[in-house]
Amino acid sequence: MNVNQHSPHSVHDPFGFSTFSRGLYIGGAWRPADGEGRIEVIDPSTEAVIASVPDATVADAAAAVDAAASAAEDWREMPPRKRSEILRRCFELMVERSETLARLISLENGKALRDARGEVAYAAEFFRWNAEEAVRISGEFGLAPAGGNRIVVDYQPIGICVLITPWNFPAAMATRKIAPALASGCAVILKPASETPLTAYALAALYEEAGVPPGVVNVMTTSTPGPVIAAMLADARVRKLSFTGSTGVGRMLLAEAAKNVISCSMELGGNAPFVVFDDADIDAAIEGLMVAKMRNAGEACTAANRIYVQSGIHDVFAEKFTRRMAALRVGPGVDPDTECGPMITRKAVEKIERLVTDAISRGARVLCGGRSLAGRGFFYPPTVLVDVSPASDMGCEEIFGPVAPLYRFESEAEVIAAANDTEYGLAAYIYTRDIGRGMRVASKIEAGMIALNRGLVSDPAAPFGGVKQSGLGREGGQHHGIAEFMEAKYIATSF
Q: Looking at residue 33, what is its pLDDT?
């Protein structure tokens, strides 16, 4: 398979990197880091350095908390309608600049341009949705059962929020946290992934243009997240931590947050089962699987990780699916014809290689792909494996790449047990023409989100989150997302 690559020297600041990578964004100003360190940003398609951003220190973390604290009261007291209009303007600007943002994401993340465009549309929607919800935050009023007093419940902003986002969706993972936090009246500090910081800084400039006051949103990049985050969580003014990333890092952050009893929202790892029953529409299931597996080249926590196909259609399904996967065009994310971009780093490719090698050693057969591509860039081809042992490493770990292992099953009870045989519980997918069976199986699979006869589960209007080791809390939804950034205050009174 050929990979279409562009020259490492073909990019010359096409997005104005000098504008939004010139400093940390703290208190509405672009400022240098306390130290002189810089973080290089690599194009995964070429391995070329395309920009560098400041490397924040503990002193910068303190400055960010100070800035958020200075802005917090005015933002908290701002009328909900005015906050709503600012959020709506953020949405409008993201839509206006959608192509530029998509190309920036493709360049620093490597994802196919079509996926990047979808991400920008999804990311912008969090601002529109939360702009509408910001004016609907209401309290409760009732009579105590004993009749002695009235019960008044007021919902108030939780306080300064530290938000930590991953590299795989550099726009959407940020707006999914920032938008509800701002709608609730909170000031925030965003620490984006150091692999993809440019999108976060570009959006910071956009928020400022939309009217977000100085200090309400602060953005800082660092190569030493441990001490920097710990310093912020040790500050009594910080009352919320929202993290999206691996379960291992999530556990460490929970332990750090526990020292000061900080409220936490955790969207962690996944190991999503994709279940196809004999009675499913095979072509529809394959279309859904192409989305569930290959969105962002498989680098998604919701990606289909274990594909269970009932024995009656297994071989036909595997043949048709393999043809679709083998036909995907691999290339640089910024190439409009690319359908599968590179992985984020060389380390990510090495992990995929390890998982595939282990599966083959345990008896798996490769139907397409299965071997790294030569040349520059962190590319791995779309790969399909059959006869995969459930005991293989890829059955237990997130693949986070374009590798699809197929497992054969016989009965409903068998596949439910297999789907639940994991410490994770973020997303799951079910394909069947029998809606009764679909709902029955959905109720028994241990996951926070189920897609029934659909390959896409995420929606800003729906609560996103998992069970077991996949996280705590929910993001998005009619009230779930904003509730994560609010505290309920009970007032007892009588009159």
A: 95
Helix (H) or strand (E) holding 250: helix 247-258
CA–CA separation, 379 and 398 (whole Å) = 18
Q: Check: CB of residue 270 under 8 Å from CB of residue 426.
A: yes
Determine contact, residues 32/403, Cβ cutoff 8 Å: no
Confidence of residue 36 (pLDDT cuts 50, 70, 90): confident
Pull the structure tokens for residue 315: 């071989």
Picking from 426, 378, 404, the residue whose alpha carbon sits closest to that of residue 294 is 404
Give the total residue count for the chain: 495
Helices 80-96 + 113-133 axis angle, to 10: 160
| Active site annotation includes 267 | yes
Q: Which of 127, 243, 253, 230 shows the shortest CA–CA distance to 484?
A: 243
Model pLDDT, residue 20: 53
Distance in angstroms (rounded) separating the CA atoms of residues 333 and 353: 21
The confidence band for 115, taking pLDDT boundaries of 50, 70 and 90, is very high
The pLDDT assigned to 361 comes to: 97
Query: Residues 121, 124, 128, 130: is their CA dihedral positive or negative?
Result: positive
For the record, the structure tokens of 132 come out as 């509408």
Closest to 272 (Cα-Cα) out of 474, 68, 39, 458: 458
Q: At what angle do helices 80-96 and 198-210 cross, to 10 degrees?
A: 130
Task: Exactly one of 267, 299, 398, 484 is catalytic; name it.
Answer: 267
Looking only at the bridges linking them, the beta strands covering 403-409 and 383-386 are parallel
DSSP readout, 141-194? EEE-TTSSSEEEEEEEE--EEEEE--SSSTTHHHHHHHHHHHHHT--EEEE--T
Q: What local confidence, expressed as pLDDT, does residue 8 receive?
A: 33
Q: How far is CA 301 from CA 135, 166, 290, 473, in A?
A: 32, 11, 15, 16
Residue 301 known to be catalytic: yes
Asked whether the beta carbons of 168 and 238 are under 8 A apart, the reply is no
> Which residue of the set 90, 161, 264, 301 is catalytic?
301
Q: What is d(CA 440, CA 297) in angstroms, rounded to the nearest whole number?
A: 31
